[in-house]
Amino acid sequence: MFELGDIVQMKKPHACGANRWEVTRVGADIKIKCLGCGHLVMLTRRDFTKKLKKVVTPAAEVDLSQEPQYVTPAALKRP
């Protein structure tokens, strides 16, 4: 359904007006980052799946030149 590094769209937009989020942590809790302003939000997996509308771009297909706030999944994982 969703993986680390995916760009997702939520049902409601963020206060900054952007509606695209990057998944930066996956586990019991899901951490997402707004691609408009960089704000981080942590949700339970249950709340995240209820508020998720769709996966816009899988992590493997993200164009880094189009997304200045995007951080690659390799940089997010612990060494």
Low-confidence stretches: none
Q: β content, as a range?
A: 25-35%
Give the helix level as a range of percent.
10-25%
Cα-atom Rg, whole angstroms? 12 Å
Which structural class fits the helix and strand makeup?
Answer: alpha+beta
The CA-CA distance between the termini, in Å, is 25 Å
pLDDT averaged residue by residue: 89
Number of helices: 2
Say how many strands there are: 5
Shape: globular
**Whole-number count of domains:** 1
What composes the largest sheet? 5 strands, antiparallel
- Provide the spatial order of strands within the biggest beta sheet: 4-3-2-1-5
Mind explaining what this structure looks like?
By secondary structure, the protein is of the alpha+beta class. The chain has one domain (7-63). The protein has helices at residues 45-51, 73-76, and strands at 7-10, 20-25, 29-34, 40-44, 52-57. It has a 5-stranded antiparallel beta sheet. A hairpin with a 3-residue loop joins β2 and β3. This is DUF951 domain-containing protein. Pfam families: DUF951.
Strand and helix map with partners:
Layout: E1 7-10, E2 20-25, E3 29-34, E4 40-44, H1 45-51, E5 52-57, H2 73-76
Antiparallel strand pairs: 1-2, 1-5, 2-3, 3-4
Pfam families: DUF951
Protein name: DUF951 domain-containing protein
The gist of it:
The protein is of the alpha+beta class and 79 residues long. The chain has helices spanning 45-51, 73-76; strands at residues 7-10, 20-25, 29-34, 40-44, 52-57.
